[in-house]
Amino acid sequence: MLQQLFFAIVAIAAFSYAFRQFMTIRRNILLGKEEEISGDEGQRWKNVMLIAFGQKKMFKRWIPATFHLFIYVAFLFTQIELIEILIDGFFGTHRFFADKIGILYPIMLNTIEILSVLALIGTFVFLARRNLLKIPRFHKSEMTWWPKLDANLILIGELVLLAGIFSMNGADAVLQKLDPEHFHDTGFVLFSGTFGPLLLGGLSEGVLIIIERFGWWLHILTVFAFLNYLPSSKHLHIMLAFPNTWYARLQPAGEMNNMPEIMDEVKSMMGLLPEGDAPAMEEELPEFGANDVFSLSWKNIMDAYTCTECGRCTSECPANITGKKLSPRKVMMDVRDRAEEIGNNLDSGHFKWIQEDLRNEAHALTKANYDDGKTLFDYISNEELHACTTCNACVEACPVMINPLDIILQLRRYEILTQSAGPADLVPMFTSIENGGSAWQIPDDRDKWAVDAMSKD
Amino acid sequence: MSNKELKIPRMADMAAAGQEPEILFWVGCAGSFDARAQKVTLAFCKILNEVGIEFAILGNEESCTGDPARRAGNEFVFQMAALQNIETLKMYNVKKIVATCPHCFNVLKNEYPKLGGNYEVLHHTQLLEELIGSGRLKIEGGGSLNGKKITYHDSCYLGRANGEYEAPRSVLEALNSDLTEMVRSKERGLCCGAGGAQMWKEDEPGDKRINTERTDEALTTGAEVIASNCPFCLTMLSDGVKAAEKQETVMVYDLAELIVDNNGL
Lengths: 457, 265
Description:
Order of helices and strands of chain A: HHHHHHHHHHHHHHHHHH
CATH class of the largest domain in chain B: Alpha Beta
Strand order of the largest sheet of chain B: 2-1-3-4
Low-confidence stretches of chain A: none
Mean pLDDT of chain A: 93
CATH topology of the largest domain in chain B: Rossmann fold
Number of domains of chain B: 2
Strand content of chain B: 5-15%
Oligomer: heterodimer
Number of helices of chain A: 18
Distance between the termini of chain A: 99 Å
């Protein structure tokens, strides 16, 4: 009874605190601009099933993909056991499903145990890949102490979860023989049925019950801790991979988003709009492109929260490979850090974050009057943006359909269109396209090559 | 050399004569002005002449598609160039376009529709595949490329941007060449370094130039010919081959040039 009460308190606290944190993330994602993303649900389902659920893009690199699959499938199946743990915890039952689903129960337990062993192997391999093998993408400059620790903490958490499951099941297997009345026969379970009696056989029932309870609590408390750690870790992809692939863009990778406001302006300049359709002149000078999370799309921010910092994008980036400062992964990490910074400041409600000229009339700090004097350009340098060749390698590499290029291009647009800055080298190209219709300033006729060739022929 | 007279009609002349070509050949800035890319332009015209496709070019009425300006971030310059081109294409009632530059191809195909320009757009390697497949373009057996070790560089804008990896490879197969893939090919193909308006600016500080990285990879295949489908890749890879001092033994060609060479057009 006491255990049940304690469980209920911990569970409710864990779920409600996690819920609050997830709502904060939702709020942070929605700091981005509204963008309607819909249409072609067939293709979207296909993406979710194949890419998120089916891990299709992970398998471009089959070694990490295989071990990742072990952990992923183990995680999915353990959810069934987790439901049972929750039921047992709230209602004081023991292995609630054991006498209700018949033969399915030992099948379930065996499946989970086999997958757990595979996940255990996967976790050790990943710890080795992160810490012993010199895999370059785990050691780039943006992989500072926190991203590295974050990755290791999750893997260690994984080991604790597995230790919990195996001690619980192992002790249970012995207890089933000692006290069949309280410990339902679960049938033969491969690992705990073998190693349980081998390692724990001969211990007294009291000690075994303590081990069983210890495993059970260890498992569920780690799950609760993980649930609450998740929102501040890079590990959110376990949830966001699904909506992120659903909302991923479906148009060809080469297509840049149109800017209808500029198109209409140019059309009106060129006399291409019917009379009266000319765009209304705005009072304030408009801002084009993006300089902060407020001017990016909410999808860009969701991309940032989905990123698990695997670095496949960066390891395929031609600029990064040749030693330039650009790293697509860093762009994603920067966007998330910036969104968190703004989110935290908004949560503080402090008036110092209100735009100076609005501070007197404002009643509360909101995303509309927010100004901390910073932008994304304080995180991402022009040098990084200028190094991008728009080759789409990062977009192609991402297993969960994150698009760093889209962000880079929006920042470039801001730099050129709003700040009138950007690489000076590019100015002659702009001028010659504008004035001469060619990317180079060349006095010749555009078809001189044809005239010359035909006269030679 | 072929005895056939080279015919490169201008759209304006055809329209004046009351004619409409089967297809518009979009030459692009590089194809028009860059000495190396001009050779590809001519090679492609020879092929079109050879198979008897009625085509035309826009000549001075063609303007940059706006691709480098847009990717650099300059949407105003892009829109001006693009809307001007769309007006020109409307005037000539253009429905089908072929481009030898994957950047032009991508913008015409994927970006002009949002501005009101809708066309069927092909990259020249796609048209070449189609022509070979339908038997209109016959590849002479035992040509210059027969059994030669060749490697193929996927341009970003034909490859990843538009998912076209097979058309150029099937052309190479028709040429009976010994295609050796680079480690990074198709979806994983490494950029030549010119895209996203990099062609017009100095590199950002780094350890190595991207084109050198890519050319080194191409050279390790031991290929005598590096085939490409983009005038910018052509420049970058040729520079890379020169930097490696391999220009005497390794050539960089566009697929259209390989066909012209093989068939002796």
